[in-house]
Structures are given as C-alpha cells and as structure tokens.
Design brief:
Elements lengths: L3 H4 L23 E3 L10 E5 L17 E5 L5 E5 L5 E2 L2 E4 L5 E4 L6 E9 L2 E2 L5 E5 L8 E3 L5 E3 L4 E6 L8 E6 L5 E6 L4 E7 L4 E9 L2 E2 L5 E6 L4 E7 L3 E4 L6 H6 E6 L5 E8 L5 E5 L5 E9 L2 E2 L5 E5 L11 E3 L5 E3 L4 E6 L8 E7 L4 E6 L4 E7 L4 E9 L2 E2 L5 E6 L6 E9 L11 E6 L8 E6 L5 E3 L1 E6 L2 E6 L5 E9 L2 E2 L5 E5 L11 E3 L5 E3 L4 E6 L6 E9 L3 E7 L4 E8 L3 E9 L2 E2 L5 E6 L9 E3 L5 E2 L5 E6 L7 E6 L5 E3 L1 E6 L2 E6 L5 E9 L2 E2 L5 E5 L10 E3 L5 E3 L4 E6 L7 E8 L4 E7 L2 E7 L4 E9 L2 E2 L5 E6 L10 E8 L26 E3 L12 E6 L8 E7 L2 E2 ...
C-alpha cells in the first residue's frame, strides 16, 4: 500500500480506532473507483465497514469506516462502456500477492468495472465510475472526503480544474452541523479542499463551476462519530409563576401541568413549592404572548385551571443574546482546566445545555457566579479536535458549535479491539425448548433460581442446569407468543443483565439497544488475571459485535460464541488502572457502554483474607450490621466502604478485635441492593464487592412494565405520555432518561397504577428512552422511539433529558380488581385426576389423605375446603410435591357427613364436591 505520506518518505502513523488511517488488506469489499487518472492506473478505494475477521487472517484489528487505497487482487476484469460494448483492462501481476489493473477509457460517461476472482464477482462488483474528457473542460473532484469521514476530523478531497478554462469555482457543504471549509491552491490546476464536520450524519457536498454542478455533484458523504467521547451538563434557568390556592404535598404528587404557547406548541412543565407555600410552575418561555397553563389531577382540571400567563419579550429565551467569552473555545490544553464565561443576563429565561465531544471524555465543571454569569471549565485528557455545543433555550448560541484544538500530552492509553459477526438466532416457536445461558464461575447452582413470566402475566419457575463448570442454562417451554421476562437470581439478587427479554416468535425490533452485557469483568478486575463477562445479542438480531478495551496497557481479548445468541468474553491486561470497555453492535454503543472498569494491582497478600459471619438474608435500613474479616497472617491495611443503590458511598467502621481479626460495621440508610467493597492494601479481597439486600420490600425491576403511546411513533411539538406500572414491584428509585437529537421537556407524576411520564420532542429522529428501577433496566429498556414532524429547535449533538422519582409501594386498584393483580391462568380442571381414601371416608382424630394430579391441567391454584355438620373441619394441609402433584391431609373431630370441595382455580375438579362419611 502506498499512501501519500509514504511516497514522500515519512514514517506511517500507527493505526488506532480514533485516527483516520490507511492500511493494506489483501481482499476487496465495498469499493468505489476514483474518477481521477493517477499515474495511468485506476486507483481503487476500499471502505472498511462491518468487515468480518477471517480465521485465517493475520490481522485481528479492523477499524470501521476507514479508507484504504490499493490495487485489485483478481484474475479477471472487464469494463462495460456507456455504449454497451465490453473492453478488457490490462492486468499486471505485482508478484507480491496483488495485481494492478490499468484501463485507458475510450468513451465518456458511466462505466462498469466487473472484477472476478475464481470466476465469482468480488464483493461490490461491478463497480461504477464516471469518465470525463479533459479536453471537454470538465472539472472533476476526487478524494475520501466525498465518501466518508469522522466527526471532529478534517475531511479532505481535491478538485481538478486542468484545461477547464475560465470560470468561478463554488463549493458548499450541507449536513447535520455547520462545517468550516478551507481551500488551498496547489498551483498545478488542482485545489485541495478540507471541511470539518462536527456532528455525525449524511453531508451533501456541492461543487459548482461556472454556476453549474460538475459531474457527480452533489456528492453524499457519510460522517460517523466513531471513537468520539462525549460529556454534557445542563443548567436550569426557568420562568416561575405562582398559582393561586393552597395545595398539600400529597396532592402535589398527583398533579401534572402543561403549558400551551400561542402557536399551539404544548409541552409538560414542572410544579414546585414556592417560598410562600403556594404552588408555582416552572417552564421555558419560547414565544411572546398569552400562554395557557393546565393543571390536572387524574386527567381533570383543578380549581381555577386553566390559568393564563402572559410572557413579554424580555422573558423569552434568546440564544443570540447570550455572550460567550474566553480563548478556551478556540484552543485548550490537556490535563488542565480550560475556562470560558457565559453571560445569560440579557437573554431571558431558558435552559443552558453544554456538550463537549472529542478524543477523550472531558471533565466539565460549572461555577455559578453572583453577578449572573457562569464560568465553565473543561479538562480533556487527549489532544485533538473537540466539538463544543452550547445551547440556550434549545437554540445554539452565536458561534456554536465551536471547534477547539486541544494540544498537550495524552495519557498514552492503548486500545485493543476485536470484531465478530453475530448471526440471527432462528425464530423460537411455542412449545419448543428455550434456553438462555450465562457464565458465573465460582458459585454453587444451589443459590441460583429462575422464573419466566409470559406476556399474559403467568409466572413459572424455570429449571437451571450447569452445562459445564461455571456455565449455566435456564430451560423453559413457552406457551404463548410475545416477549417473555426471564429473571435469574443468585442469592435472591438479580444477576448482572437480569431481568432478560426473551421473544417467542418473530422479533418486533432489532438493534444495539437490545443487546445486554453483564459480569464481573465489566465492574472490576485484577492485573494479569482474566476478567470475564457475558454478552447477549439474541434480541438484537444479526450484526457485527465490536469489543474494545482501552487503558494503560494493551489487552488480550478472548471471545467464545455459545451459538444461542449469547457469548462470553474475557480479557487480560498487564497494568493496573482505569480501563474503558466499549461494546458496539452495528457501530452503535449498547446500553451503558462504554463501561468504566478499575483494574487493581495483583492481589498479593489480599488473597489470604476471608470474611466470616456475613449477614444472611436481608438487613434493615437505618440499623447497623456487621461482619468479620480474618487476615490469616497477611500484612497491610484494611479498608471498606458501602455503596447504596443511589450510588451514595459511605465508609464502614473497622475495628481490630484481636491481632488477626477485624470487625467491619456498616450503616445502610436506603432500601435496595448495596455493594460492600472490602480492600486490603488497595486491592479487593476474594469475593469483594459483596452484595446484600437492605429492607423488607422486595424491589423487583422484573415486575415493572411500561406502556402507552409515548413508546411508539410520536410527533414533534405534541406532548405524549406513557405509564410505568410499578404495582407489586416494591418501593425504589425510578429513573427515566431520554437520549435524542434534542432535549425534551419531561415530567413524571404519580397515578394509581404507578407513574405517568410525559414529554415533548422538538426535533425529528430516533430517541432512546431508558427506564431503570433501582439502577436496573426494566424489560424492553432502552425503548427506541421514532419521532416525525417539523424541526422546532436547532439541531446539534445528541442530548439527554432525565427525571428521577423515589417511588412508593403500590398495588393495583383499577377496574373491579383491588389489591394484587392475579396472572391470567390457562388451565383445564377437567384433566385433573384425584385418588385416595380421604375422598370417600374419613376417621375422627386421624390424618386423612388423598392426592391430586394436575400435571396435564395447566397452571392454576388448588383450593381445598371441607365443611361438616358443625362447620369447617379443624385443619387442612396441602403439600405440593412437584410438577403439579399435591398431597392433601385433613383432620376432623366430629361424626357425620362432610362436603369436600376441590377446585382448580374457579372450576371444580371431576367429582367435586365429594361427599365424605366420618
């Protein structure tokens, strides 16, 4: 491979995932032929995109969307000319595993180059290319920037005007972001053009000569956000209006409010307690004039609602009036705070949103000064171009997005990446044997349990088998089509990734948002020791899974496909420190990726320590609990902390009991799953972090369900809602986050069955709604939402909106049902068999027995009642012996005739009611 740099004798740059690099590969795929005649040879460009790694290949690192220039490796090629005639190009063997193809065009227009290897077309063949006649005066353009690029990296191409005569050259780039364009006249009849895209998407590049498009113009280039790191903060600045009347705090939870602008745009707004004790609304004014505020309780207006609010000109948020100062928006330095100032005093009311995207995730700090201005500091760790999006009231401020050149030393982080093709799993049928596998080494299967809940709400225990050491499979047979919920628990706590979505029948949706990953290797690790985790791609369909490990040292990554839509991954690194594990599916990050993992130094003496008297079951909040740690002769310092479900950290109290034993005391203040980190000389001891359940409430994300129009197709400018049903899920923390082309106005209010979330999107595109309960995804989360309609705000980078609610325990009170909702049972009582003397005759003071076989009767609840001359009998015992087999014992103390009722759900079994003589 000869790149331009190498022709000039410079050293080639080592390829990484974040650089625009060139490299050679000995087979071809996705090719386009240059329209420029270079050294009398047709130059072929190769776009590396979703390329599977061959087992026989020496190359185990494949970047995506890279452009490589090379000559075709083939044994046969032919060119179909515009006239329809076929011509033969010249094929030269380079004797290095490649061949060169040379072709001298004889006609103008579109040609087709067919390239065959062993008689078969190579991928993408035949390739189309356009031939111009230089003497005709045509201007031509060629180069990678007309095909693809990366955000924040200059995209370059060349325009040739040789022999074109006099005329003005005009160029424009249109796309998701503005792109700064620079020109350089090469003084040889060519012009080098560079443009800097700041957001991913498709860009339209128009090149005109003498007011006419040149041939091939407009060009369309795909710009990706590959390898970019992003950070974002939002600062609230809202208009507040006090409403008349007094409303209690309990009423406030059940109220929701929306504001309608004069143009008809309606969006949710927040209700808040004002210093006066009254209720106020908080909103972002977008228009001048009279706004209508509706405050409703369970869909009905409260007293005096709707309210009228008048918005004057100085209150409307105007991004053009925001003043931004500071050299840090032009250039910056790594590993130091780069500061700039924002003045919104004369810009009205509006939310300020700031995002910084570049080669590293820059830490952002915001200081609100007393004079009404803000100071923003960002600290990048890698040099390169950064894109700063700064919005006020959903519109870019003047100059945004800013392109910042950051210089300085990087962190010398190393990245290793593998890429594997994932095949779609065959459709699962009703009645077939279903399997979900996961790897959890170092545990006992005795502590594992699994349940499967069908779309109709029927929950059943599932069987767990150990396939091999540390590899387990959940087996179940579905009885209906649709999305099933598979909950897998270890010691009554969901394993990472659980609850799982498992679709029976055709998949309703596919994509990266449906990939799940979990395991200790995504949480912590030890240098030199394999760190393992699971990846489940079954629900996402077929595609390319890319796994990258970036940190202080290079990783050795191993991948094992379990051929059932799941796989296990392990990696080993040689240096301790902070690592990032990136998981992408079809070039898009999966939920929660990239994962931040701390790899601790080698365990050393920490392996000697052991924990004793660790609390079993669950402990209570606001009460201290403790356990013991034995050092077993190890020398060093012990430290411990407890991490609550809200991510709040608290130190544990460590007391030396004797020379070799410590007491570790912790004080949980929340309900939910806590993690207790125990370290020795800064290294986790075996088994750390330990997980423990705090509180009596069994908070179960598998019991939370979301439904409503807000999860389907929505329109810009229209408020839409969804219901999150938390009945029987316990009290926990509900967090709803929406990622999309623009921030959404969103609120959350309490309703009978759970919580109603309402939001208004302002830009069309795809939004992803993440719903977590106690930091665990509910089934189906994140949900992909398609939004159509007109753009009501300025486009920029991806933006995030979120709302967090501390929930209360709820039971269903809808319709005629009260309390817990019973599952929808599917059963047939007529198929139940019963036998035993206790169905006909009984003896006083003795245990009388009969058996029930409901193995073929489906699922339901067995009810047994016995009524005698003087009322119910003394006692009835029902024991489930497995597989819907039951043994029933009862005791009577009076003579006479008794009536024995046996029901399977609401239906009597055959023979019931029975007459029993005592």
């Amino acid at each position: 491979m000869w790149s331009d740099d190498e022709e000039q004798g410079t050293e080639p740059v080592e390829a990484t995932w974040e650089e625009h690099s060139q490299f050679y590969r000995s087979f071809s795929r996705f090719m386009s032929v240059s329209e420029h005649d270079r050294r009398e040879m047709v130059r072929v460009f190769f776009i590396e995109q979703d390329v599977p790694v061959l087992e026989s290949s020496d190359i185990d690192f494949i970047p995506t969307n890279m452009l490589s220039g090379f000559f075709l490796h083939t044994h046969k090629a032919e060119v179909k000319m515009p006239s329809g005639e076929v011509d033969k190009p010249v094929i030269d063997d380079n004797h290095d595993g490649t061949v060169s193809i040379r072709y001298e065009p004889k006609e103008e227009g579109i040609h087709e180059l067919a390239v065959k290897y062993n008689g078969e077309h190579v991928q993408g063949s035949p390739f189309k290319f356009h031939v111009d006649s230089i003497s005709s005066g045509y201007v031509t353009a060629y180069g990678p920037g007309l095909v693809h690029g990366v955000t924040g990296e200059p995209a370059q191409f060349i325009i040739s005007t040789k022999g074109a005569g006099a005329g003005g050259l005009q160029m424009a780039v249109e796309g998701p972001s503005k792109a700064d364009i620079t020109y350089h006249d090469n003084k040889d009849g060519t012009v080098s053009v560079s443009y800097l895209p700041t957001a991913p998407g498709e860009y339209k590049i128009s090149v005109r000569f003498g007011d006419k498009h040149i041939k091939g113009s407009p060009y369309f280039a795909k710009i990706t956000g590959e390898g970019r790191k992003r950070n974002q903060i939002s600062v609230g600045s809202c208009s507040e209006v006090t409403l008349p009347g007094v409303i209690s705090d309990n009423d406030l939870r059940s109220l929701n409010a929306s504001i309608q602008a004069p143009s008809g745009l309606e969006e949710p707004c927040f209700l808040k307690r004002m210093p006066t004790g009254n209720i106020g609304i908080s909103f972002t004014p977008r228009e001048i004039g009279e706004h209508t505020v509706s405050v409703k309780r369970l869909g009905k207006h409260i007293a005096n609602s709707p309210f009228k609010v008048n918005v004057c000109e100085r209150e409307v948020g105007d991004a053009k009036k925001v003043i931004v100062t500071g050299n840090a928006l032009k250039e910056g330095k790594t590993h130091q705070d780069n500061v700039f100032s924002i003045d919104t005093r004369n810009a009205g009311y509006g939310g300020l949103s700031l995002s910084i995207e570049g080669p590293s995730k820059a830490e952002i700090q915001c200081t609100d000064k007393d004079d009404g201005t803000l100071n923003i500091a960002y600290k990048p760790t890698e040099p390169g171009y950064y894109i700063v999006n700064l919005k006020f009231a959903d519109h870019h401020v003047t100059g945004s997005p800013f392109t910042v050149k950051v210089s300085g030393e990087g962190t010398n982080r190393q990245r290793e990446k593998i890429q594997r093709q994932r095949e779609a799993v065959p459709i699962t049928e009703v009645g077939s044997q279903c399997k979900l596998t996961f790897k959890m080494p170092g545990i006992t299967s005795f502590d594992l349990s699994a349940t499967v809940t069908s779309p109709g709400g029927v929950s059943e225990d599932a069987e767990i088998q150990e396939i091999e050491d540390g590899l387990y499979a959940v087996h179940f047979i579905p009885k209906e089509l649709g999305v099933h919920t598979v909950s897998v628990k270890y010691k009554q706590i969901h394993i990472p990734g659980s609850p799982f979505q498992f679709t029976v029948g055709p998949l309703k949706d596919t994509g990266a948002h449906l990939v799940k990953a979990g395991g200790p290797g995504l949480e912590h690790g030890e240098q030199g020791v394999p760190a393992e985790f699971n990846v489940w791609t079954r629900e996402a369909g077929g595609g390319t899974l890319a796994i990258s490990v970036e940190g202080p040292s290079k990783a050795e990554i191993e991948f094992k496909d379990r051929k059932d839509g799941s796989c296990d991954v392990s990696y080993v690194v040689s240096e301790p420190g902070d690592y990032r594990i990136g998981l992408k599916f079809n070039d898009r990050h999966i939920p929660d990726s990239p994962f931040k993992v701390y790899i601790s130094p080698a365990m050393g003496e920490a392996h000697k320590l052991e924990v004793a008297q660790f609390p079993t079951g669950c402990v209570q909040a606001d009460k201290p609990a403790q356990f013991m740690v034995r050092k077993n002769g190890a020398k060093g310092e012990l430290d411990a902390k407890v991490v609550a479900p809200s991510n709040n950290e608290d130190d544990c109290f460590i007391q030396l009991i004797d020379q070799d034993q410590y007491s570790v005391r912790f004080y949980p203040r929340e309900n939910g799953i806590h993690a207790i980190h125990v370290k020795f000389n800064g290294v986790h001891i075996p088994g750390s972090p330990y997980r423990i359940k705090v509180g009596k409430d069994d908070v179960d994300p598998a019991a939370v369900h979301a439904s409503g129009k807000g999860l389907g197709d929505v329109k810009t400018g229209e408020k839409t809602d969804l219901i999150i049903d938390t009945c029987n899920a316990g009290a926990g923390t509900l967090a709803v986050t929406v990622d999309g082309p623009a921030k959404v106005a969103m609120d959350c209010t309490e309703v009978e069955e759970g919580y109603k979330v309402r939001y208004t999107p302002l830009l069309p595109g795809h939004y992803y709604m993440t719903i977590k309960y106690n930091q665990m995804h509910i089934v189906g989360s994140p949900f992909k939402i398609n939004c159509t309609g007109e753009s009501l705000a300025e486009a920029g980078g991806q933006e995030t909106s979120s709302v967090i609610v501390e929930t209360v325990a709820k039971v269903s009170k809808g319709g005629n049902r009260t309390g817990v909702i019973l599952p929808i049972f599917k059963s047939d009582a007529s198929k139940i068999q019963s036998k035993g003397m206790g169905l006909k005759k009984a003896y006083m003071g003795k245990q009388n027995q009969f058996t029930i076989n409901a193995g073929d009767a489906g699922n339901n609840i067995l009810f047994v009642g016995i009524y005698g001359p003087k009322g119910p009998c003394d006692e009835v015992f029902i024991k489930h012996t497995g597989r819907n087999q039951y043994t029933v014992n009862y005791l009577v103390r009076e003579r006479g005739d008794y009536i024995l009722l046996v029901k399977w759900g609401d239906d009597h079994i055959p023979g019931s009611p029975f007459k029993v003589e005592v």
